[in-house]
Structures are given as C-alpha cells and as structure tokens.
Amino acid sequence: MTPPGAKPEPASKPEAKPEAKPEEPKTADDGDRFGEAAYERAKARLREKMNRMNSGFDPEMMLDGLTIAGYHIKKGARAFTDFAKQMIGDLGTGIRPRVRQFYEMVRNEPDFETKGMDDHAKVEAHQRSLMEIPEADLATNHEAAINRALGVE
Question: H helices of 25-134, where?
C-alpha cells in the first residue's frame, strides 16, 4: 500500500525474454558428413547453383559435390558405373565432367573405406566413355546409356 500523499511506485514491467529461435529438427545422421540430411541439403544447393550461369571455381559447389558423392558411395554405389548413374540421376547431365573428380575426392577422404571402389585406371577409362555418350541418349534413359557405354549388363 502507498501511504497518503506519497507517489505510487510505477508498476514494474516484466523483463522481456529474448525470442527463442525455433530449433531445426534433429535427424539420425546430424553430424554425419555423408548422411541423408547433409546429402539432401547439398543436393538442393548444387542443383540451384548448376542452374545459374557463372564462371570460375566455386568451393561450395565442390564441397556439396563431395557430400553427394560420399553419400552415394557410402550407400553402395562403389563401382564407378553405379556412382555415375546416381550422380547424373540426381544432378543431370551437366555434372558429367565432374563425376570422376567427385569419385576420386571421396576416395582420398581420410578414414573413408575405399573397399570395392574401382581403381584409378578404370575410373579414367569410364570417365572418357561417359563423356562420349550423346546428350540425347542420357536425356532419354541415363542408366541404360551409361550401361551401354561402359559395357555393363
């Protein structure tokens, strides 16, 4: 109570709490560089970048390509032929010149299990054959075109 003749104290305002940012949902593979969540984020970024015309080296594109490549190899596309089909299926024919590079980047990752991956000579030969496939064949059925070009039944 306020005594007679005294000024009432102003009501204290409750302290404003800082707004909490909503947390992104956690996934089972958070922190896994080649996990599903990392793969989906990298694929979305790389697709968007590939649709823009730019020149020069883009380190983010290389990191996203490495993430996508590592995901596919980790999930079983260890043979270069299978890997190429996955990469072209995800990113389109524009990724063709980089398929070998991404495959080799994963092979050179420290502590990555390379068992079952094709050797450098086979990868090099397959990359040359991959580049010779007509664009129209890849657009029609990329898996069949790659199988024919790389001699896979």
Answer: 36-50, 59-74, 80-91, 99-107, 120-132
